[in-house]
Write a structure and sequence with these properties.
Helix content of chain A: 25-40%
Radius of gyration of chain B: 17 Å
Number of strands of chain A: 10
Order of helices and strands of chain A: EHHHEEHEEHEHEHHEEE
Shape of chain A: globular
CATH architecture of the largest domain in chain A: 2-Layer Sandwich
Distance between the termini of chain B: 35 Å
CATH architecture of chain B: Alpha-Beta Barrel
Helix content of chain B: 25-40%
Number of helices of chain A: 8
Structural class of chain A: alpha/beta
Oligomer: heterodimer
Order of helices and strands of chain B: EHEHEHEHEHEEH
Mean pLDDT of chain A: 96
Largest sheet of chain B: 5 strands, mixed, barrel
CATH class of the largest domain in chain A: Alpha Beta
Strand order of the largest sheet of chain A: 4-2-5-10
Low-confidence stretches of chain B: none
Strand content of chain A: 15-25%
Bound molecules: iron/sulfur cluster
Strand content of chain B: 25-35%
CATH topology of the largest domain in chain A: 60s Ribosomal Protein L30, Chain: A
Distance between the termini of chain A: 18 Å
CATH superfamily of chain B: Fe-S hydro-lyase, tartrate dehydratase beta-type, catalytic domain
Chain lengths: ~280, ~190
């Protein structure tokens, strides 16, 4: 297979193009999930919150103003074909795209360069980039602009293998219930199961990049996703925590092989402003 | 925006007014509020601890926990929804002692905040999290009055008209984050109880 010379400017331009629309236009899958939720919601406070949120999506799209003022930290998953050779530094290209996109669309700069000394970098860089090698000569770019009100309610646990499926269920339910109003429900729940301490969290984040409502390809996990969603929506937290049926819009699970001694689980919470995009370059 | 069941309220307001509001009340708030979040709170507390005057009158003030996106297209402000209030909990009792009357945010408050709210007569409102475009429309003016170097976290004076809010915690400590979900579960019967 011939090596493809890949211009990193392609990456820069794709990221730059995504920042504005990600902030102002809710993806179709999220909008549909919210409309469906509004149809079946029976909590009185909840109904007016959902109407307000749908209204807000509309105002954002037509007036070109961000759906939420927290326009997020950019999270990128790059699936890089083994036959690709980059003609420059893809990390730099991605950050240049973020810099231009956030500036040109007047988005909020929400990143500090150091976690304790906390000085804002002023251009929303750097992005968090995770690379995976895959067959072929394409580069698949998955873009998320992750809000941190919801991120802060995420949790990770090293369960015992004996805790099994029910242990995972309890942990996810407990995390979603404790997140409550802080995560701006309706929430989207990404669950990683297996792997190791570090990998399970990334799996949970990757789960959040799936379209809302897109089930796992393995029927066993698709069933588990459905039943977790049902259980979360019985907690009564509801939209904005005011009480109601719609606590979560969807649950997505990603699994990894793990050690005989381990059952890691991570629950990464996203809000209804679930900004995600994908492009194959 | 005004509809049945909404109470019109003007900020700033006094303790008597605050004590008349009830958890679950739906409010349309107009008047003057101040924006402040993490870094601004830290600065305000440091300044008070040095015995200096705050850059805005704390007595009867309402603080909106928000870090707006930049203003565009002739607007006063960009997207401007609430941020998580609990991050401000460590600073809040001291501000309540100094006369702070209302807070607008989203999410839980800790026991020390609720205790001080009851003692001083203050209210905690929620605005809808993730409705920054809609809320932006209710903000008529925005002016940075201190700490411009903090960017989105600077202290701003806002003039607002009919901002839709819900009273979450009232001055008696009643909390819609507990009562709302419980009431919904009760309508669903025992199976979810
Ligand atoms: S959690 Fe989501 S909706 Fe809430 S403020 Fe953050 S980005 Fe916005």
């Amino acid at each position: 297979m011939a090596i493809r010379e890949f211009q990193v400017d392609l990456l820069r331009d794709a990221v730059e193009r995504m920042c504005g629309p990600a902030a102002c236009d809710m993806p179709e899958d999220v909008r549909q999930a919210m409309e469906e939720a509004a149809r079946i919601e029976d909590g009185p406070n909840a109904r007016s919150v959902l109407a307000e949120l749908l209204d807000n999506y509309q105002i954002a799209a037509t007036e070109r103003i961000p759906v939420c003022q927290d326009t997020g930290m950019v999270v990128i998953f790059l699936d890089v074909g083994l036959d690709v050779h980059f003609n420059g530094d893809p990390y730099q290209a991605i950050n240049e795209g973020v810099r231009r996109g956030y500036r040109d669309s007047s988005l909020r700069m929400s990143i500090v360069g150091d976690p304790l000394r906390r000085v804002n970098t002023g251009d929303n860089t750097p992005a968090l980039v995770s690379v995976r090698l895959v067959p072929g000569d394409r580069v698949t770019l998955t873009f998320m602009a992750k809000g941190f009100g919801s991120e802060n309610t995420s949790r990770l646990a090293m369960l015992r293998p004996a805790d099994g499926l029910e242990g995972v269920r309890r942990f996810v339910l407990d995390t979603a219930a404790k997140a409550g109003p802080n995560a701006c429900p309706p929430i989207v729940v990404g669950v990683g199961i297996g792997g190791s301490f570090d990998q399970v969290a990334l799996a949970a984040k990757r789960a959040l990049s799936r379209d809302t409502g897109q089930a796992h390809s393995d029927p066993f996990y698709a069933d588990f996703e459905r039943s977790l969603l049902e259980d979360i929506n019985k907690t009564g937290v509801g939209p904005q925590g005011l009480g109601g049926r719609t606590t979560a819009l969807s649950v997505a699970i990603e699994v990894l092989p793990t050690h005989i001694a381990a059952l890691p689980v991570a629950c990464n919470i996203n809000c209804h402003v679930a900004r995600h995009m994908k492009e194959v370059l | 925006m005004a509809g049945p069941g909404f109470i019109s309220l003007e900020a700033p307001f006094d303790e008597t007014k605050a004590r008349s509001l009830r958890s679950g009340d739906r409010i349309l708030l107009s008047g003057t509020v101040y924006t402040l979040r993490d870094a601004g709170h830290k600065r305000l507390i440091e300044l008070l601890n040095r015995g200096e005057e705050p850059p805005f009158p704390l007595q009867d003030a309402v603080i909106y926990y928000v870090g707006p996106s930049p203003a565009t297209g002739g607007r006063a402000i960009g997207s401007a929804g609430p941020t998580t209030a609990s991050r401000m909990d460590p600073y809040t009792p001291q501000l309540l002692e100094r006369g702070l009357r209302g807070m607008i945010g989203k999410g839980y408050r800790d026991a020390s905040v609720i205790e001080a709210m009851k003692r001083m007569g203050a209210v905690y409102f929620a605005a809808t999290g993730g409705a920054g475009a809609l809320l932006s429309r209710t903000i008529l003016q925005a002016e940075v009055i201190a700490w411009e170097d903090l960017g989105t976290e600077a202290l701003r004076r806002l003039t607002i008209r009919e901002m839709p809010l819900t009273v979450i915690i009232d001055s008696q400590g009643r909390n819609l984050y507990e009562d709302g979900p419980r009431a919904w579960r009760e309508t669903q019967g025992d199976e979810n109880g």
